[in-house]
Amino acid sequence: MNCGKMACVLVVLWSALTVAQAPVPSPALPQTTSTSTDSPKDYSKESIVVESSVGRFWFENDGTGTRQLSVRMRIQSEAGVRQAGVLRLAYASALEALHIEYVRVHKPDGTVIETPADGAQDIASDVTQQAPTYSDVREKHIPVKSLAAGDLLEYSARWNLFKPVTPGHFSFASDFDRSLIYLEQKLEINVPRDRAVKLKSAGLKPVITEQGARRVYTWTTSQLEHPSDKDQKKQQAQQQRQVRTGTLPPPAVRLSSFQSWEEVGRWYDGLQKERIEPTPEIQKRAAQLTRDATTENDKIRALYDYVSLRVRYVGVDLGVSAFQPHSAESVEGNGYGDCKDKHTLLATLLAAEGIHAYAALINTQRDLDTDVPSPSQFNHVVTAVETDKGIIWLDTTPEVAPFGWLLPPLRGKNALVVSAPAVLKKIPDAPPFRRPKPSV
Description:
Blueprint: E1 48-59, E2 65-75, H1 78-84, E3 86-92, E4 96-106, E5 112-114, E6 121-124, H2 127-130, E7 137-143, E8 152-161, E9 171-174, E10 181-192, E11 198-201, E12 207-211, E13 214-223, H3 229-245, E14 253-256, H4 261-272, H5 280-289, H6 296-310, E15 312-313, E16 318-321, H7 328-334, E17 336-337, H8 339-352, E18 357-362, E19 380-387, E20 390-394, E21 414-417, E22 423-426
Parallel strand pairs: 1-10, 15-17
Antiparallel strand pairs: 1-2, 2-8, 3-7, 4-5, 4-8, 6-7, 9-14, 10-13, 11-14, 12-13, 18-19, 18-21, 19-20, 21-22
Helix pairs in contact: 5-8, 6-8, 7-8
């Protein structure tokens, strides 16, 4: 996730995308939900009504997989045309291939107009304009042909994950979209039948079926009520407050093949281990930066200040670019990095001075669900520095934060410290120092 700025793109882009909107965090779902056969409602004033949205996810034991999104929606106004007129589907080109299966417009007179898949524009994501290092993040923009109010739009897309994000494992986390009217919204997760998984879902229990060597979990729900403008503003204000304070509820569905947090830590350590070995150049830089330091704490402060102030932070979702940080040398050479890159540079500089520092994986928007060990729960990396007086928690992404200062949404939360072995540790609720009182 956007490490600190909290832009909403779900883990490794593996979530159901509708129109061009990020999912709205959903409240707990009731055990039984209405369907389109219940008492008819008047949706004539809605700009879009989604008749059906089906997200299907297939996971394999080796960590590869496929997801498919099929949507059928009624476009009821010019506002709906503007909203759905260009479909925007994101993918990570280094990990997966995106195929547009079909885009069709059904006119009221029965005419069907196809939008050819080869008409899609494949463009770099906005983040690549800030940081070319992350050029694998791309989007396909599909201008829908002849779309007008009164039409029925249906489209289907498939993402094939050919390079596992977590080799030998898979995980998933997502919310049901609540921004539109949905007559039916379905989620299917298909896994090897004999593979142990940890699963939690808020309120709505899945129907579980077995099909040969596969097990399928299916959730079916709907969104038949549109909140009033007043209620919608109230909900948006509440969600914004939850984002600011890091108290969003957990995703509606969480699934993982990881059986322990130590296992998750082993996986991440395998990604970063070679990237945090000090090279002669890094050793030379660390010596230069700490030449005036007389204590270990002075060294830590000097290196923190350098990475915090001199290396520009670029917000990129943790999971995009395969979770793997860039090497310390490349981060310093580029002069920018995301949260995991900035941690890697700091940890490597500290290692050059004989100081142990570990990646601490955390979520800025919500606390971890300790029952479902999974990389998909993380969207940020901070640094845990081991000292004789205990752990010093550092975050170099705010750039101007005082030494040891963590933003409030991070405090009091569990973080996975990737030591040997990896363990969950709670970050203290209070900062390590008091704010100075304003002078009179």
